[in-house]
Automatic annotation (TrEMBL), chain A:
UniProt lineage: Bacteria, Bacillati, Bacillota, Bacilli, Bacillales
Signal peptide feature range: none
Subcellular location field: Cell membrane
Listed GO biological process terms: succinate transport
Listed name of the protein: Membrane protein
InterPro entries noted in UniProt: ThrE_2, ThrE_Dicarb/AminoAcid_Exp
Topology in membrane: Multi-pass membrane protein
Entry annotated with the keyword Protease: no
Spans traversing the lipid bilayer: 6-23, 28-48, 54-71, 78-98, 118-139
Keyword Flavoprotein part of the UniProt annotation: no
UniProt organism field: Sporosarcina luteola
Family assignment from sequence similarity: Belongs to the ThrE exporter (TC 2.A.79) family.
Automatic annotation (TrEMBL), chain B:
Sorted UniProt keywords: Cell membrane, Membrane, Transmembrane, Transmembrane helix
Transmembrane intervals: 112-134, 140-159, 166-183, 195-213, 225-246
Membrane topology per record: Multi-pass membrane protein
GO CC aspect terms: plasma membrane
Position of the signal peptide: none
UniProt-recorded Gene Ontology molecular function terms: transmembrane transporter activity
Protein name: Membrane protein
Domain Threonine/serine exporter-like N-terminal: 12-248
Length: 151, 248
C-alpha cells in the first residue's frame, strides 16, 4: 500500500513539474512515468541498502534510460523527459538541513549534511551520464550490425 | 543556391540556436542542431560556438561570421521540441528553407506556455506530493499545497517586475517559509521543516543542474561552468530566503 501511494505521488509530482517546465501536452503522462520509475527504483534500493548515494545513482540511471527510450519512440529531445524525472531525486531535504544548521551556527553538522547533498547530486549526474554512454554504445554496435547486413 | 538564400540559411540556423538556448536546451544539442541544419543547406565548413549568453556561427568563406546574443533564459521544453521538429523536417526535405524560417519566426512569436493558474496548481500539487515523498505528516499537506503555490506566484510576479531572477527566487523562498511558519503558528501544520522543503521544491534549479553536468561531461566547459554558477546562485538565493525566516 505504501509503495502504491509513493508511486502515485511521485507520478503526480513529476507530471506537475512537467507543467511548470512547459513540456508538450501529450508528453505529460510520460514525464510523470519517468519520474515514477526513477523514484521507485531510488526508494526501493534506499530501503534495502540504506545508502542514498547509491540509490540516487541507480534512480538517475533508470530515469535517463527510460527517458531515452521515450525520446527514441516519440522522436523528441530526451531532455523533455529527463528533467521532470530527475526532480524527485534532487536532495532538497538534505540541502535544507545543511542550510538550517548553518543558520543555527552548528557548522559541523551542517558540513556533514552539505557533503551528503553534494555526494547525492554528484551521484545523480553520474547516473545520467553513465546511462547515456551505455545507450550510445549499444546504439552504435547495433548500427554497425545493420550496416554490415546491408553490405 | 544564391547568396541571398545562403544568408537566409545562416540566419535560420542562428534563430533556431537562439530559440533553443533561450528555452533551456543542452549546449551540445544546440550545436548539433545548428550544424545539421547548415549541412542540409550546403554550408559544409560550418563551425559554431555556443555559450549560454551568446552564439557564434562561422559558415566558412565567403560568408561572414555572425554572432547572436541570448538575453534571457527560461525553461520551455515545448519550444525545444518544436524547434527540434523543424530542424528534423528541414533535413528530411519536408520543409523548404523559406518554410522552415517562417515556422521558426512563428515559434518565436507564439506563446506556448501553460496558463499561469495551471502552473500554480501544478506547483501546489507537486509540493504536496513532495511532502508525502519526504515522509511528512499527512495533515501537513494543505500547508505544503498553499506554500508551493504562493512560492510560484511570487517568483513569477517579482520576476516580471524586477527582471532580476535571483531576487525573485529569494523573495519566493522567503514567502514559502513565511507561509509555512504562519501555518505552523496557527496550528494548521506541525512539521515546519517538511512543509518548507515541499514548498521550495518548485523553485529548485533542476534543469540547470542536469544541463550543467551534461555540458561539462560533453566538454563544453564554458557553458557547463556558467550554468553551474547560475544553479549555485539560485540555490543560494533559495537558501538565503528560507534562512532569513528561520533565523527569527
Amino acid at each position: 500500500m505504501d509503495w502504491l501511494l509513493q508511486a502515485i505521488f511521485s507520478f503526480l509530482a513529476a507530471a506537475g513539474f512537467g507543467i511548470i517546465f512547459n513540456a508538450p501536452r501529450k508528453m505529460l503522462f510520460y514525464c510523470g512515468f519517468v519520474g515514477m520509475a526513477g523514484w521507485m527504483i531510488y526508494s526501493v534500493f534506499n530501503v534495502f541498502s540504506g545508502d542514498p548515494v547509491q540509490a540516487s545513482f541507480l534512480g538517475a540511471f533508470v530515469v535517463a534510460l527510460v527517458a531515452h527510450i521515450f525520446a527514441k519512440r516519440f522522436r523528441t529531445p530526451m531532455i523533455i523527459f529527463s528533467v521532470a524525472g530527475i526532480i524527485p531525486l534532487v536532495p532538497g531535504g538534505t540541502a535544507y538541513n545543511a542550510m538550517r544548521h548553518f543558520v543555527e551556527n552548528d557548522n559541523l553538522t551542517a558540513i556533514s549534511f552539505a557533503t551528503r547533498a553534494f555526494m547525492v547530486s554528484g551521484a545523480i549526474a553520474m547516473g545520467l551520464v553513465f546511462a547515456e554512454v551505455i545507450i550510445q554504445l549499444i546504439f552504435k554496435s547495433r548500427m554497425k550490425k545493420r550496416s554490415a547486413h546491408k553490405l | 543556391m544564391s547568396v541571398v538564400d545562403k544568408e537566409m540559411a545562416i540566419d535560420c540556423c542562428l534563430l533556431a540556436g537562439r530559440l533553443m538556448m533561450e528555452a533551456g536546451a543542452e549546449t551540445y544539442r544546440v550545436e548539433d542542431t545548428m550544424e545539421r541544419m547548415a549541412r542540409t543547406q550546403e554550408l559544409s565548413a560550418v563551425e559554431s560556438f555556443v555559450t549560454p549568453t551568446g552564439i557564434i556561427l562561422s559558415p566558412g568563406s565567403p560568408y561572414h561570421t555572425k554572432l547572436i546574443r541570448i538575453r534571457s533564459r527560461s525553461t520551455d521544453l515545448e519550444k525545444v521540441a518544436l524547434v527540434n521538429g523543424v530542424s528534423r523536417k528541414l533535413s528530411t526535405n519536408e520543409y523548404t528553407l523559406e518554410e522552415a524560417y517562417g515556422r521558426l519566426l512563428e515559434i518565436e512569436r507564439a506563446n506556448v506556455m501553460f496558463p499561469l493558474w495551471l502552473q500554480i496548481l501544478a506547483a501546489s500539487i507537486a509540493s504536496a506530493c513532495f511532502l508525502v515523498l519526504y515522509e511528512g505528516i499527512w495533515s501537513d499537506m494543505p500547508a505544503a499545497f498553499i506554500a508551493g503555490g504562493v512560492g510560484l506566484i511570487f517568483v513569477t510576479i517579482v520576476h516580471e517586475l524586477t527582471k532580476v531572477k535571483f531576487f525573485a527566487e529569494f523573495i519566493a523562498a522567503l514567502s514559502v517559509a513565511l507561509v509555512a511558519y504562519i501555518f505552523v503558528h496557527l496550528n494548521f501544520g506541525t512539521d515546519l521543516d517538511k512543509i518548507i522543503i515541499g514548498g521550495v521544491m518548485p523553485l529548485v534549479p533542476g534543469l540547470l543542474i542536469t544541463n550543467a553536468v551534461r555540458d561539462l561531461m560533453a566538454g563544453h566547459f564554458m557553458s557547463g561552468l556558467s550554468k553551474g554558477a547560475e544553479a549555485f546562485l539560485t540555490a543560494f538565493a533559495i537558501g538565503a530566503g528560507v534562512a532569513l525566516v528561520l533565523s527569527f
